[in-house]
Write a sequence for this structure.
């Protein structure tokens, strides 16, 4: 498709039991040094970062839970948007120093990478060795390669994800 703006990809929707066999076949077929899975990064979202910061600051669970529950359950909600939308949260933020300190620290961490994983079906096949294109990572107790570039970055360096 000449109008496509991103690299083409194809989906490998195999069951969990057979997926490793398919990936191993592809690695044997094209060379293990040219095939890897793609990393995913989980970020610190509004409710989770409030809970994490509350735990680090040693606030009682009940206190942190009440604040976290004031954040609207909405995909992609940020703490700034929650403060705009939720009067009760904004009021507590403005009136209570503990709440303000908790939210302010959480805002500094919001959106940062919290964990990593493997893209469920994401596999990249490089025209030469993968290290020409992407840094690699190998999980502990495994020989499986994982690109440290996520799906968007893999596409940006010119590799097509499968």
């Amino acid at each position: 498709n000449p109008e496509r703006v991103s690299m083409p990809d194809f989906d490998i929707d195999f069951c969990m039991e057979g997926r490793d066999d398919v990936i191993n076949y592809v690695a044997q077929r094209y060379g293990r040094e040219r095939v890897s899975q793609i990393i995913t990064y989980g970020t610190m979202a509004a409710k989770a970062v409030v809970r994490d910061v509350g735990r680090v600051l040693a606030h009682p669970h009940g206190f942190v839970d009440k604040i976290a529950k004031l954040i609207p359950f909405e995909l992609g909600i940020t703490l700034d948007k929650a403060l705009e939308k939720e009067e009760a949260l904004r009021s507590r933020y403005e009136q209570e120093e503990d709440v303000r300190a908790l939210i302010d620290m959480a805002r500094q961490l919001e959106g940062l990478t919290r964990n990593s994983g493997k893209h469920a079906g994401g596999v990249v096949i490089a025209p030469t060795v993968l290290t020409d294109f992407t840094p690699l990572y190998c999980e502990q107790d495994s020989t499986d390669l994982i690109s440290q570039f996520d799906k968007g970055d893999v596409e940006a360096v010119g590799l097509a994800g499968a």
Q: What stands out?
A: The chain has two domains: 16-42+115-156, 45-109. The longest strand covers residues 113-125.
